[in-house]
Amino acid sequence: MMSKTNVAVFVSGSGTNLQALMDSSIESANIAVVVCDNPGAVAIKRARSRYIPVEVVNREDFESREEFERQIVVRISRYDVGLVVLAGFMRILTPYFINLFKDRIINIHPSLLPSFPGTNSVRQALNYGVKQTGCTVHFVGEEVDAGPIILQAAVPVAQEDAEENLLEKIHAQEHRILPEAVKLFCEGKLTLIGRRVLISS
Ligand code: GAR
Predict the structure, then answer these.
(1) Which residues, 6+ apart, have CB-to-CB distance to 78 below 8 Å?
(2) Which residues are catalytic?
(3) CA–CA distance, 73 with 35 (Å, rounded to integer)
(4) CA-based diameter of the chain, in Å?
(5) Which residue's CA is the closest to the ligand 1 atom numbered 16?
(6) Taking Cα atoms as reference points, which of 113, 132, 115, 114 lies closest to residue 124?
(7) 133 lines ligand 1 (CB under 6 A)
(8) What digits encode the pLDDT tens for the residues 99-148?
(9) Ligand 1 atom at minimal distance to the Cα of residue 121
(10) Rounded to an integer, what distance in angstroms lies between the CA atom of residue 175 and that of residue 18?
(11) Alpha-helical runs (H) found in 77-133
(12) What is the Cα–Cα distance from 40 to 54, expressed in whole angstroms?
C-alpha cells in the first residue's frame, strides 16, 4: 500500500477548493486536519460533514500574526503534517511559519502569476483587459504570491465576462489543478531547482 502524507488544509471562506480536494480522494494524501481562521466559514461545515478534524483559530483572538501562527502550530502538532495547503486562506504567513514548513506549503491563487498577485486578482485582471487569465498553484515563500510555480491553468476572458462568472470559470480550473498538485507532491514527484519546479512522471 502507498504511504500517505498527512495534509493540513488552511481555509477562510467557502471552501470549494477544500471540497475538490476531499472529493478527489488522492491515494497518497490524507487530509488530516482543516485549519480555519474564520469561525463563520462554510468550509468548516464541509470538513465536518466528512468527519475531518477542524481547528478554528480566530486571528482576532491574537495580538500579533506570530502569536496566531504559534497557536496554529500547537493545534496541528498532533497530526504529523507533511504538507500544508492554503486553499483560500486569506492570511499572509510570517517567516516563522514558512520556515517551519519550508518547501512544504502550497497555495492556490486565482491569476496567472506573476500577474495580479495579492487580493481581488480576478477584478484586477478584468480591469487590466487581459485576454487570458487563470490560476496558479505555487510553493509559498516569504514574498507574497511569488514562490516557485507548480501548475497553472489558463482561462480565456470572454468579452461579456463579469467578475462573478469569470471567477466561476477560474474556480473550475482551480478544482482540477489543486488536487493534481497535491497528488504530485505526495507522490514525491516535485523537485525544486532554484525557482523551477520539475515534475517527474
Ligand atoms: C480561490 O479562488 C483561491 O484561489 C483564492 O480564494 C478562493 C477561495 O475559494 N485565494 C486567494 O485569493 C489567495 N490569495 P474557496 O474558499 O471556495 O476554495
Answers:
(1) none
(2) 109
(3) 10
(4) 50
(5) 15
(6) 115
(7) no
(8) 999 999 999 999 999 999 999 999 999 999 999 999 999 999 999 999 99
(9) 12
(10) 9
(11) 95-100, 121-128
(12) 13
Q: How far apart are CA 165 and CA 155, in angstroms?
A: 12
Q: Which amino acid is at 182?
A: V
Q: What's the residue count for the chain?
A: 201
SS3 181: helix
Measure the CA–CA gap between 106 and 86, rounded to whole angstroms: 6
Residue with grid cell 488544509, as numbered in its chain: 9
Q: Is the dihedral of CA 58, 61, 64, 68 positive or negative?
A: negative
Whether 148 and 140 have beta carbons less than 8 Å apart is answered as no
For residue 71, give the H/E element and its range.
helix 65-76
Specify whether the CB–CB gap between 87 and 11 falls below 8 A. Answer: yes
Residue matched to cell numbers 515563500: 141
Residues 141 and 98 sit within 8 Å (Cβ to Cβ):
yes
Q: Which residues have CB under 8 Å from 159's CB, separation 6+?
A: none
Please report the pLDDT score of residue 2 as a whole number: 75
Ligand 1 centroid to residue 64 C-alpha, Å: 23
Determine the Cα–Cα distance for residues 80 and 37; give it in Å rounded to an integer: 20
C-alpha cell at 20: 475538490
Query: Is the CB of 15 inside a 6 Å radius of any atom of ligand 1?
Result: yes
User: Is the distance from the beta carbon of residue 178 to the nearest atom of ligand 1 less than 6 Å?
Assistant: no
C-alpha cell at 31: 487530509
- Structure confidence by residue, pLDDT tens digits, 165-194: 999 999 999 999 999 999 999 999 999 999
